[in-house]
Design a protein that fits this description.
Structural class: mainly alpha
CATH architecture of the largest domain: Orthogonal Bundle
Order of helices and strands: HHEEHHHH
Number of domains: 2
Radius of gyration: 23 Å
Largest sheet: 2 strands, antiparallel
Distance between the termini: 66 Å
Number of strands: 2
Length: 142
């Protein structure tokens, strides 16, 4: 069997996991992981056991890839996938997930800014010379 459409997102026939990875931006290892989490339904296999993907699976992988790039958790992605596939969904449900994620991002950003401020202050107080005294280590040990 020849491998066609390696770089064609609209491949008419089934493609292998490497091709699906290239088309979706998701590594083959992560594709297997997403399948194990049931984010991607089981795919058809050849008699030799090789996975065969179609346009629908590649589109789903792109969705997952984009959601991961935005920092959504696997649980959130599972819920977003469920909503995406449900044509009778309420957009309010999607918005609720997105806004909860924004709130979590804002909380984490505030925590990181506080860490940066503390470390900047500690580094400013450290002489950074040959002496053993170091306020950074003193703070960490307290």
């Amino acid at each position: 069997m020849t491998e066609k459409h390696t770089n064609n997102a609209n491949a008419s026939g089934p493609i292998n996991i490497g091709q699906a990875a290239a088309l979706s931006g998701v590594s083959a290892k992560m594709i297997r992981h997403y399948e194990s989490l049931s984010l991607l339904p089981p795919v058809r296999r050849t008699d030799a056991g090789y996975r065969q993907y179609g346009n629908g699976q590649v589109h789903t992988l792109r969705f997952i890839h984009r959601a991961r790039a935005l920092g959504f958790s696997m649980m959130e992605i599972a819920e977003l996938l469920r909503l995406w596939q449900n044509k009778h969904r309420a957009s309010a449900d999607v918005k609720r997930i997105a806004l909860a994620h924004v709130a979590d991002l804002e909380r984490r950003i505030a925590e990181m800014q506080a860490m940066r401020k503390t470390l900047t202050q500690l580094a400013h107080c450290c002489q950074g010379d040959h002496r053993p005294d170091c306020p950074i280590l003193t703070e960490l040990a307290s």
